[in-house]
Amino acid sequence: MTFAVELKGITKRFGAFTANSGIDLAVRQGEIHAIIGENGAGKTTLMNVLFGLLQPDEGTISVNGKPMAIDSPAVAINEGLGMVHQHFKLVPSLTVADNIFLGMEIRRRGLIDRAAQVERTRALSQKFGLKVDAQERVAGLSVGIEQRIEILKVLARNARTIILDEPTAVLTPQESRDLFQTLRSFVDDGMTVIFISHHLEEVMAVSDTITVLRDGRVVATRPKQELTKRELVRLMVGRDVSFDRRPRHIVQGESVLEIEDLWARDDRRLAALKSATFSVRAGEIVGIAGVAGNGQTELAEVLSGLREASHGSAKLHGKELVGCTPAEIRDLGLAHVPGDRLARGVDRNAALSTNILMGRQKKAPFAKNGIINWTVVQDEMRALIKRFDIRARGPRDVARSLSGGNIQKVVLAREFTAGGDMLLIDQPSRGVDIGAQEAIHDEIMRQRAEGRAILLISTQLDELKALADRIIVMFEGRIMGVVDGNTMDEDAIGLMMAGVDPSDVKEDE
């Protein structure tokens, strides 16, 4: 059998760290081959080696049965490989067609033939069902359209094997399903797709063959029909993990957070949060759903005192938060897990014990009469390392020496034990592996059971489905609707995430 791609013994090291260790991978022509694994398993590194962005320390690569030395993306493209990266690389000021042909412009008499580029874009768009407006400028387009453009860029370069790195990370559920249909049409046309993901549902929905990586090694390659979601998790993590909706008792009490007609501007001074009105009660988890960049960040920053509100009110136990400093808001009882843990969650150059002290350096039992008791602080850090399974040697470890997932655990440990009765949690599972995600979810449910009010912002619908009592859906800074977590309709949520009222769709039907 001739394989579209075959890797043998691929090893890639970064200093003392081995990202890929002796990996064998064979991808058949005309299939969707998923590569799945936890964050840090080596998925993206392996694909960067295949595409020529990185050079392997050991091993060989063959494309369509021919051994290749792929020492640059240009060589990979010439051999029919294309890669759609997780972070798009488009020029906003250019049109769709100009972006697609950037670097390989169609020319006539020495000048760029933009009419020919538009015509070719339309032909590709129609052939593969990737609807775009060839003459529209990229600035202001949705991320779903931007991804179509990235795929068309690859197709315009005559790729027959396409690598997609976490392609659904910024898509609504409907956009994801459209993408899967497109990928299936590629295979029907004789092309090959390599699909990198750590989302189990989408891998099971779209792939033909699945390769599981763990700690930089291949632990299994099997046809999809031979695997269940539970078996996939066991292969990825090495044990059983549950992501079912968490059982809960009704413990909802009085309203803790009251938000009314709250507005805020983004860094460009444009309205990013518009007339938000909702409440969060004690013992309740209210989830905020939406594609990243639809006002969730501004909402979190206003509530935590990191951004000024331009209008409206946010009260914690009746006390106004708008206009307060972060320290004052913390003293009122709001603990905040920021979405960007590195920029706002920790001091990377400080010890873990110092990081855990932030925000309570003047409070008992950690300080008395302005003097910090470091023995108490370090004892607390040791206890939190054990409780939150932080992979560190001890309290004196510097934060930057930890992985991103473990830094996230440090932030969660500090905020979850801060003693406030309101938790603002932004992207709690970002950058953590599946096993750690389960532990984080357990801890969030523990906080709920203890009667804390929780506002949970997440771009992962599965996470909200597992945890939230109510789900608020945001689009372009506005609240599109509120959904009961026990009876959530993912299609309805997906429509609202795209700015569509589900009732309008039903009326049209």
TrEMBL record:
Source organism superkingdom: Bacteria
Protein keywords: ATP-binding, Nucleotide-binding
GO molecular function: ATP binding
Presence of the UniProt keyword Nucleus in the record: no
PANTHER family: CARBOHYDRATE TRANSPORT ATP-BINDING PROTEIN MG119-RELATED, GUANOSINE IMPORT ATP-BINDING PROTEIN NUPO
Family: Belongs to the ABC transporter superfamily.
Full protein name: ABC transporter ATP-binding protein
Lineage of origin: Bacteria, Pseudomonadati, Pseudomonadota, Alphaproteobacteria, Hyphomicrobiales
